[in-house]
Amino acid sequence: MTLEDLVGYNLSENKMENVSQALEELLVAAQRQDCLTVGVYESAKLMNVDPDSVVLCVLAADEEDEDDIALQIHFTLIQAFCCDIDINILRVSGMSRLAQVLGEADTVDSNGNEPKDLHCILVTSPHVDDLKSQALKEVGSFCKESRCKDQWVPSLALQER
To answer: Which domains does the chain have, with CATH numbers?
Structure first.
């Protein structure tokens, strides 16, 4: 491995960490401002009614979800729709961290309630400028850079903290 490889690897690793942190900040800010739509079906309904309000689509799945054919079909359709209307898409692994960031239970609770479907999350246009933050710019920039490298749907792993 050359020095360039090592430096490039560290920069790439740091970039991923920064984007991961920015995504978490963005999701928390959007949730506080009621600018999140959570769930595959809820997201599909919103994109059908008001696609121009969506600024980011987060598709989340862990390894065990990769064999869920229905979920993968939903992801494919949502990705196609997002590509058609230029919505940034980000694939994320680390469902338990995602649930933790959003303050959601990732297992059945003591009342028998199922956890929310966090497989698809849409960030919608903010009504307040607070959401148009550095976090949104950083995630958008990461998506754009990935598309320039022919990675149309960039992937990111959320790490437990």
So the answer is: 3-157 (3.30.1330.30)
Q: How far apart are the first and last CA of the chain?
A: 30
- pLDDT at position 106 is 62
User: Is 0.90 surpassed by the pTM of this model?
Assistant: no
Q: Nearest Cα to 161, choosing from 94, 61, 90, 108?
A: 94
Which has the closest alpha carbon to 40: 121, 160, 96? 121
Which tokens belong to 141? 């920039």
Minimum mean pLDDT among 10-14, 124-128, 145-149: which range?
10-14
CB 124 within 8 A of CB 37: yes
Burial class (CB in 10 A: 0-12, 13-18, 19+), 80: exposed
Helix axes 69-84, 40-49, angle to 10 degrees: 20
Distance CA 24, CA 102 (A): 9
Do 56 and 109 form a contact (C-beta atoms < 8 A)? no
Q: How far is CA 114 from the centre of its chain?
A: 21
